[in-house]
Amino acid sequence: MEFWLDKIFTFMLTHKLVTTLLLLFVMLGIKRLIVRLVRRRGKKRAEDKRPAVNAIKNVSNMLLVVFILVLWSAEVQTLAFSIAAFMVAIVLAMREYIQCFTGFIYATSARMFRVGDWIQVGDHYGEVIESDWLSLTLLEVHMETYEYSGKTLNVPNNLLITRPVKNLNFLKRYSTHSFILTRDQSVNVFAFKEQLQEKARSYCEHFHDVALRYNNLIEKRLDVNISGPDPAIRITTSHLGDTETRITIFCPTDQAIDIEQKITEDFMQLWFASRDAKEPLPQPDE
Predict the structure, then answer these.
(1) Residue 2 falls within a domain, yes or no?
(2) What SS3 class is residue 229?
(3) Across-strand partners of 166?
(4) Tens-of-pLDDT digits for all 286 residues of the chain?
(5) Containing domain of residue 157, as a range?
(6) Is 283 inside any structural domain?
């Protein structure tokens, strides 16, 4: 008996292809026979044997796969090493694409932004107009003027992982706009600071109530305190000794530059008026 078993195992190992075909034929035949018997019994008893038939098919298919893997185990192991080396080469060649896909999954799951939001990715600012698994499309926005540049930015999604991403959507409607006016120290700016602040407040008066509500909304959602809605003026000096007047206003984004120009015009008028009103220095006697 052992002699014949050794003969059978030797034949199976030396003629694997023939053994595989025989195994397929036998297993499929046994499966079909068992399924036929179960269905026939189900018809006689008027029972639904579809779950049993499905289980028999799944079990027989699994056993067939296991038998084939055991028979070809040595070849499968060699193939696995080859596939592993091939996959490593594929991963190295497509590393950037894999990172882009990972960045897309990360941004989608974290809900970092949606189409229409203003965002900052690294040094790039823009409005999101499209997002896919490979890249992010932005309409570039100049944050100094809050205007569209007309340029389209295609940002790879891997930057969403390797670069800071800021959602600037609150700036799309209202923004905390700051600008600096620099002059020499021939005039004391504190002398007309209250006048300048009053003029700045008048330019912001018509949207003050809306700005107050929007300011409170941002503070509530972000759980932080932000400047506004009243204009703020801070006077400092530069490293060269010039007077710097920093003005901060909380205003509609589309009106920020216009209000800045009005305040700048008032500042220049007050500055030159103060300079011209100063008495000339006494001249030394000859």
Answers:
(1) no
(2) coil
(3) 120
(4) 555 556 666 666 566 777 778 878 888 888 888 888 887 877 777 776 666 776 777 777 788 777 777 776 776 667 666 677 667 777 777 788 888 888 888 888 888 888 888 889 888 899 888 888 888 889 998 888 888 888 898 889 888 888 888 888 777 788 888 899 999 888 888 988 999 999 999 998 888 888 888 777 777 766 666 666 788 899 999 888 889 999 998 888 888 899 999 999 999 999 998 888 765 544 445 4
(5) 96-170
(6) no
Measured CA distances, 62 to 36, 57, 118, 215 (Å): 19, 9, 53, 64
Instruction: Spell out the alpha helix ranges (H) of the chain.
Output: 2-14, 16-45, 50-71, 73-93, 95-110, 159-162, 193-203, 208-222, 256-277
Q: Please indicate, yes or no, whether residues 121 and 189 belong to a single structural domain of this protein.
A: no
Domain of residue 164, CATH code = 2.30.30.60
